[in-house]
Amino acid sequence: MASLSTLTPTPTSLSFFSSPLFISNPSTHSKLKFKFFPNSNSNSNSHSTSLSISCKLATLPLLSFSGEKVGETTLDIKTAAPDTSRAVVHRAIIHDLQNKRRGTASTLTRGEVRGGGRKPYGQKKTGRARQGSIRTPLRPGGGVIFGPKPRDWSIKINKKEKRLAISTAVASAAVNTIVVEEFGAEFEGSPKTKDFIAAMKRWGLDPVKKATFLMTEVSENVLLASRNIGSLKILTPRTLNLFDILNAEKIVLTPAAVDYLNNRYGFSDQDDGGYDEEEGDIVEEVVEDGQEGPDAEESTGVVN
After folding, report:
1. How many CA within 13 A on the CB side of residue 180?
2. Which of the listed residues 52, 257, 272, 297 has the most CB atoms within 10 Å of its CB?
3. Do residues 132 and 121 lie in contact, with contact meaning Cβ atoms separated by under 8 Å?
4. pLDDT average, residue stretch 37-64
């Protein structure tokens, strides 16, 4: 008999990147810990737990429109602890995918199928099984047993947990991320797809492989030049979502997008955590407004 170790599959990383964030301890230069202490109503023997959030510093190459390296930029954003990063990202991606479901799938039970009001034949003296309706689930054209009915699939996730999952995914993709100078003015004259593909090749991108662009402002000419490339996604801070980050093999940022990520997902001087002794919960003093990515009703990929 084979050993248990050979029968148990090796768990794979949720991220589609071979990032050291999910397999080893990242090098951090700052660390913030939130500790939870039970209140007076809870069991005194319960153990205290802590949540560690670190800040990962990554150096990204800065390329010009012609593909030459003109400098470097720094991505400094929050990341979850290595032992909890998988769970945080997994919970957020399940939240996004499940909230896209409309929940409109519906089947008819035997009481809702048209017809079947008359008893097909007598109860006795036929030698056949008892039948009360031709719409029984045991016969063709009958109802469905335990079929789907309209329901609400949406689940909730904390805003800061969702934000931490996005920043963790972006940090894990740093090894496959480049920064390109603003190139919207390069397509002012004639927005052509072949010109955009040529630019991608100069940046070291394969037009066949999936790539995600994050830009703070997207001109109409850039959209026209890139809309026929099926493997390309262009996101803005409003449409930034976890699935497109994990699904891409390459991520392209602009300098303005890097500044946005550092300001939105990095540590601020006033970002601190505290504890409310009366409630016995974690209290964070700085709460940023806004939502991460599109809402459930704004999503286009809808399944039942």
Report:
1. 24
2. 257
3. no
4. 61
